[in-house]
Amino acid sequence: MTSRPPRRADAQRNYDRLLAAAETVLNAQGAGASLDDIAKVAGVGNATLYRHFPTREKLIEAVYDRRIRALCDATEKWAAAGRPGEALVGWLREVVVHITESRVLGEAFMAAYQGPADAEPPQITAWHRSVREAAAPLLAAAQEAGAVRPGLGVAELVALTTAVARAGTPEQAAGFLDLLLEGIVPR
């Protein structure tokens, strides 16, 4: 996840509006969504969009980065809520929602990616690392409380959760997660 320098209040408002508009438009229109449409929905001019995001890839990356940051920050909320097993399950449900709601956005990011076709983009690698690092304390606490099988690694848990979220339709994902959760609870 990237850090950015502080902005003037009006510039920050424009930046936030552009990210919200981009997510909405990209989810509605897909990877080929018009940048003009995004600027129009955000209520800013094209020059403002390009000043903040010189390329389509940078805009999509910023939208997805914001979603990943929120997902990682949610682990702290869940950890503070108390019961470790319930905290982990609650967060995993958020992961499933994130994945099912980000399908088009993820496709748009990959379509805009300018790097080698046979390599994972570096930003995706960084996002995966951030998610695993954020999830590790939740998993460790749930294992220590006896709510989750010992020996289950955070990479395995995130990979399995991602797989069930991508399998089938978004409507089926919650049911698939329930099946996964049955499998990680100690017997």
Automatic annotation (TrEMBL):
Protein name as it appears in the record: AcrR family transcriptional regulator
DNA-binding region(s) from the entry: 34-53
Residue ranges occupied by any HTH tetR-type domain in the UniProt entry: 12-71
Organism: Streptosporangium saharense
Keywords carried by this UniProt record: DNA-binding, Transcription, Transcription regulation
GO MF term list: DNA-binding transcription factor activity; transcription cis-regulatory region binding
Stored InterPro entries: Homeodomain-like_sf, HTH-type_TetR-like_transc_reg, HTH_TetR, Tet_transcr_reg_TetR-rel_C_sf, TetR_SbtR-like_C
Domain of life: Bacteria
